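Task card 7
Instruction: Convert sequence to C-alpha cells.
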Amino acid sequence: MPIRVPDGLPAAGVLRSENIFVMPESKAVHQDIRPLKVLILNLMPKKIETETQLMRLLSNTPLQVDIELVRVDARASKNTPKEHLDKFYSDFDRVKDKKWDGFIITGAPLGVVPFEDVYYWDTFVEILEWSKSHVTSTLFLCWAAQAALKVIYGMKKETHPKKYSGVFEHSTFNQQHPLVRGFDDVFQAPLSRYAKFCPEDIAEQTDLNIFASTPGAGVYLAATTDCRQVYITGHPEYDFDTLANEYQRDANEGLAPEIPSNYYPQDDVSQVPKATWRSHGNLLYSNWLNYCVYQQTPYNLDELGSID
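Output:
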C-alpha cells in the first residue's frame, strides 16, 4: 500500500525514484478506505531531508498513511526555503482541534541547550500535553525523547561531555513484545546526541518498558505499556551519509568533532560509509504503525480517549 503525501512535496519524487509506492493526495481522496492520519512535528533544520527519511520508513507497510507536516517555529529557516514551509507545513493552531492516529516528533540540534532556553519550549510542552488526548501513539525521536522524559516524568537532563556520534550495537529486550517483533538479538543504529539515557534511571523514575540499549549511551528504545508513547533516542531514519554531513558541518565550524564510531571504513573519513541499520529502521517503523497505531486506534478518531 502507498504512503499518501501532498501533491508536489519534494520527498515524493525521491521516493518514486526508489520504486516506493507513493500516492498523491488528489488520487488518494477517491479511495474508499480510511488512511492512518500521522502528524509529523519536524524540528530538524534540514526539513526536506528529514521529511524524505521519515516518509521512506512510513511507506514500508501495507497501510495507507496520510501525512501532515507541522511546525512550531515561525522564524526564517537557513536550511529550508520559506516557500516550502509555507506550502507544506501547518502551524499547530491549525491541527490541534483534530485527532490523529500517529504523531512523530523529530529530534533537534539542541543537545547542549537548557530546555527552558529553547525558543519554542512552552509550545512544545503544550503539544505534549495535547498529544495525550489527541493521538493514539506518539513517537519521540532523539532530542524529543529527552524533552518528553523531562515534561512527562520530570527526569533531569543528563548531558555527556562528548557527543555519542556513530553507529552503535544495541541489545534487544522483551523480544516477545510486538514493538520489537522480528528484531535480532543485537542490531545497529545511528546515534547523534549528547544526552545519556541510563537504564537504571528510566527504570526507577518512569513506568516505561525498555526494549533496547547499548553500553555507555544507554536506552535506545522504550515505551509505555500501552505504547501510547514510544521513545527512540537515536536516528533509524538517517541516510548513509547523514552522520558524515554532520561531522563535516561540526568540523567546518571549528568544533573538532571526533570521528563517528563504527561508521567510516577503517575510520578513514575519505571513504564512503555504508548503512548497516536500514532493515532495523524499517522493521521498527512497521511494527510501530501496525501494532501501536493501526491495531489500537479507533476507526472513528473522535472516540479516542485520553491517556490516564
